[in-house]
Amino acid sequence: MVNFLKYALKQLLTLLLSFVGITAIVFASLLLYTSRERASLYLSPNTRNPETIERLIEQIIEDHHFEEPFYLQYGRWLLGLMKGDWGYSPVYNSNVHEVIVRYAPASIELLLSALFFFIPFGILAGVAAGRKKDSFLDHLIRITASVANSIPLFILAFIFLAVFYIALGWFAPNRLSLLNALYVKTAAFHPFTGFMTIDGLLNGRPDISLDALRHLFLPAFSLGLLQWATLARITRAAVIDEEKKDYVTAAYARGLNRNRVTWRHIFLNCLSPVMTAGSLTAASLTTELFVVELIFNYEGMSQLISSLTSVPDGFAVLGFIAFNLILTLALIFIFDLIKAIVDPRIREEVL
Q1: Exposure check for the chain: N or C terminus, fewer CB within 10 A?
Q2: How many C-beta neighbours within 10 Å does residue 28 have?
């Protein structure tokens, strides 16, 4: 237990340092704008008097400490980040944290749905293919995975949209149908979690949950399919490699059932490389997520970043990057903990 805690602390410290390093570089890029340029974004477009503009700019620079050295400005932002003060967004006229809270639940719900699809099904497909090497099932999984890996995500998403929505009318874009989307914005609906699949049930409206699932399926499937293919191929290769080892031969020689050997021995020894691959593919989801949201018009964090492409709203962009980093590093940390739980050799490395 002590070794596990040491390992977890070491990984957490590494990820925190990564977060600080990346956000510091991004924050430094904001200082390429002069303090007056940054302050001018806070002005109302109705302000036209030159003397008033000059006075307000000086006041904004003083209030937001735009003339301070980099390390003081960054340290103040980092401290505010932990307190929920992510900086002010002139575009949204509110704290960046409030904007993130508004859009983040939809993105997290989509991300978790994709994770729940590609991780278990990817591992099961890889184990099934590895156990029955060169069988029809193995060839089918390999071909499907190769085709899925060879098609760019945005093309795959457009194909699914054309087939399952335009041609068949099964799964619609957006997050909810029009009537339900209007209803959830009224005072009668309380967003307990921000996840529509859960909040519908908590509000006594299972029809909203079903509607949310119907709209969620296609973007989640599109997002998870490429990662499923990658994880299935890596799991298959790991299973085949483990099958050749002496302990497996000895287990069969003792008369152990093949299912027992596969799941109690081979599978557990494969989990470490599989979880490493899973953490990398899961981390890539956080970037591909926004492409899928835009294609399916899914109202998540992509709505935030798309509205900032033509306006230099530095704190909003920095907040988006911080959110993306937190999500990515959290996924990596969770997978690292799973690896340490299933493989004692990993957590022993801290000694």
Answers
A1: N
A2: 12
User: Would you state the structure tokens that stand for residue 83, as one six-digit string?
Assistant: 């307190």
Contact 252, 213 (CB under 8 A): no
Q: Which residues of the chain have pLDDT under 70?
A: 1, 44-48, 307-312, 344-351
Structure tokens given for 173: 């874009």
Location of structure tokens 């980099």: 70
Please compute, for residue 179, the number of CA atoms within 13 A of its CA located in the half-sphere on the CB side: 3
For residue 153, tell me if it sits in a domain: yes
pLDDT of residue 221: 92
Say if 335 falls within a structural domain. no
Domain annotation covers residue 263: yes
| Rg (alpha carbons) of the chain, rounded to whole number | 25
Q: What is the pLDDT of residue 351?
A: 43
Residue with the two structure tokens 């278990």: 120
Q: Tell me if 277 sits within 8 A of 234, measured CB to CB.
A: yes
How far apart CA 136 and CA 111 sit, in angstroms, is 32
Burial class (CB in 10 A: 0-12, 13-18, 19+), 102: middle
Domain tally, the chain: 1
* Inter-residue contact 197 to 212 (CB < 8 Å): yes
pLDDT value of position 44: 66
Query: Distance (Å, rounded) from C-alpha 204 to C-alpha 202?
Result: 5
Residue of 269, 315, 271 whose CA lies nearest to 93:
315
Cα–Cα distance, 201 to 196 (Å, whole number) = 9
Tokens linked to 32: 């390429």
205 CB neighbour count, 10 Å cutoff: 18
What does the chain come to in residues? 351
| CATH code, domain carrying 210 | 1.10.3720
What SS3 class is residue 94? strand
